[in-house]
């Protein structure tokens, strides 16, 4: 079976999920072509697993100082290029089209009357899950950005809905954890502001990953360039993570038993809803602005949660091989029965 797989490349979460799916799809013998949109072609990194891939401009959201700007997003969009990308993407040679919230693939498939399977966290919002920060614009973006005929939604909990657990790596639980080591990933915030925010906490070591690396003035703060391998090594033995409220990184952190402090992007319904879900489930803490007092309280709170998820990528690949039967209650329940939740105190 030949599959065309489109991936939203604006953030790293979609790509992380696609890496896991790629390994399982290739191992199962599928012929997969990946397309990434949403960032310049030279800004992708650690992409070897995709065995060659193509890029297009696509659409991306403009962010500034921790907030999504829909006005700047609209002004900077290139609708002529977007339409051209849709019209020039020929999907006739493919048996199946998958979109991880990637709009060029989704709309090209619709134009060519190809069925689209949507796999990703955003498709969980088609169900009754925790939702906050919603408005008419956000609702329309979520619904029409990358439409799918079959949406396979992913979330940290099922909330009584026909959705699946996250697609993540399933590494061994770390045997050694450095209690004072904190990983920070706030790519949409001013790095100098982040540095000033963290510098008072001299008893903790902060490993800050950022698109633009600056020189730290403080011995307890080090800035590092974006790197999948480097980030994973630091995430593995840290005690906690401070990040935006993206879905994939929080999923990996839960799998490893790391405590989470999430700062959702303002005016970004998905991230605000993710923060609400983390609080509701008791899986993490949140702050809606960069707040020194909240960070201090969180740093000295030893509570964390480990959620062990099954290999959902393997489940989905088998589902594809079986002809994509309906994901009924029994199918979904069987997957969630494999999830284990453990409270941790360090």
From TrEMBL:
<dbReference type="GO" id="GO:0016740">
    <property type="term" value="F:transferase activity"/>
</dbReference>
<dbReference type="Pfam" id="PF13528">
    <property type="entry name" value="Glyco_trans_1_3"/>
</dbReference>
<dbReference type="InterPro" id="IPR005262">
    <property type="entry name" value="MJ1255-like"/>
</dbReference>
<keyword id="KW-0808">Transferase</keyword>
<protein>
    <submittedName>
        <fullName>Glycosyltransferase</fullName>
    </submittedName>
</protein>
